[in-house]
Amino acid sequence: MIxxxxxxxxxxxxHGKSTLSDRLIQATRIIAxxxxxxxxxxxxxxxxxxxITIKSQTICLPYTAQNGKLYYLNLIxxxxxxxxxxxxxxxxxxxxxxxxxxxxxxxVQAQTIANLxxxxxxxxxxxxxxxxxxxxxxxxxxxxxxxSEDLGLDPSTAILCSAKDGTGIDNVLEAIxxxxxxxKGDSEAPLKALIFDSHYDxxxxxxxxxRVFEGKIQAGDEVxxxxxxxxxxxxxxxxxxxxxxxxxxxxxxxxxYIIASIKTVSETKCGDTVTLKNRPCKVPLSGFxxxxxxxxxxxxxxxxxxxxxxAIALEKLKLNDASLVxxxxxxxxxxxxxxxxxxxxxxxxxVQERLEREYDxxxxxxxxxxxxxxxxxxxxxxxxDNPALYPDPMNIGTxxxxxxxxxxxxxxxxxxxxxxxxxxxxGINTDYQYFSSNRMEMIFEIPLAEVIYDFYDKLKSxxxxxxxxxxxxxxxxxxxxxxxxxxxxxxxxxxLSQLVHKDRAVERxxxxxxxxxxxxxxxMFKIAIQGAIGAKIISRQTISPFRKDVTAKCYGxxxxxxRKLLEKQKKGKKRMKMVGNVMIPQSAFxxxxxxxx
Length: 597
Known about the structure:
This protein is α+β, with helices and mostly antiparallel strands. The chain has 14 helices and 31 strands. It folds into 5 domains: about 5-180, P-loop containing nucleotide triphosphate hydrolases (Rossmann fold, 3-Layer(aba) Sandwich), CATH 3.40.50.300; about 190-275, Elongation Factor Tu (Ef-tu), domain 3 (Beta Barrel), CATH 2.40.30; about 295-365, Alpha-Beta Plaits (2-Layer Sandwich); about 370-480, Alpha-Beta Plaits; about 480-595, Elongation factor 4, C-terminal domain (Alpha-Beta Plaits), CATH 3.30.70.2570.
């Protein structure tokens, strides 16, 4: 156990975490050069294309240090996006130390600070590493100053490296061995292990990633998952070295996997404690919580015949993604589909992309929504994430919406633009502080519903890419909530209904009506497109009809003859409007649900 080091790499998005992992793997030579590929721990195509880690990975690196001893370095890789912050916290709870990676050209960013706070909360030993020193724009002195002023760490301990060309990698490995503490724990005590991740294998069932804190686990043991009291017989234990390597047992301090014929990933909850049935631990590990979705959207197939394929695809995806929540849903306009809950907007995009790529489906997603708490006049509380379930406003007492605490780090010259953007989104500026003469952190309290739509894109735009953003959910606050319905030819289109704040209702309704006017084809009769709150119309667009010239055959003659033909046409159009249905093309739904440019 004295020769084990458990560590994680934490960084802001795109600061070189996956590249550093690649160099550490190459330096310890656990994989032949011919089998190596960049971002080897990022197994999904989406991860490689976007340059982000979505699914955390684990690997055991055998390293012979300069003192001649063999050490086992367990790298527990973490996702880099705010949507997956709970998984990051569980991965950090499995470690004794962390490498805090900072880009030499960009410096300390919002998630650098957020991840540092998480690491400090878990009492981890932190080694600052300044990466990308090979870039022409690298400013090491500036980053050292930020490490001291912004993070409160000793800048002299920072290790300089370039993960791209391999400079300084040996120094990083030596620092892991010498500066990070070995794990503690009693191998003879009752088993106490933390589940920090899992994935589904078609042949073996769920592979559970665990960190053993106390005791010992081996094949043949009957284990209990504390949160749901489910029991399983362990078939195999082992460690990760790109592939799974079976071991006779795992003891305190070890990081590895167990296989126990578990049918679904949902049974293994991240943050849960594993113990033995015959000799259970007295107190489970702290910090476990149920993952709750914060963003909701309905998914429909473009072709209604694809509904069975969508059902099968979601079932398979759920095997590997326990945080995805879904239930059956239906819409008059779009047919049958599923109402899904996601951890955030990035999670939603990833699920949509995986369904379209891996299962070859064409999908329509409704506008993302958050969960509102509606308190009725009789005192009962209803949780609503779907506009279709919004109750009669006459029976509603108050409505509450979730708020977030947003931290934005930016050069101070963009302060005015960020202030305007956040105030436009009903944000409240609670605090700001200067990290240096021209760099500052701004704290806002903003409704989550205003952030999930296109806030991050707008922030990057107004700060020319220099602003970084991190947030955490805080509480629910009272709001003036209304349901905006879209009517086409007097018929309500349920798939386009939205729950919005009263002040944003007219703007959203106008935008939807304008988009529908551009997309719905003209008919022989006039089509009215209206936005409404209850019976009150708040916006309108009209699609003018095609007009057949019925008087063309009249050459001269009495005017009454022409009038008679026009009256006959008028009656026909009126009757046609009564019985005529307007077919809304799929492109119209997609156009309305896209955010404004």
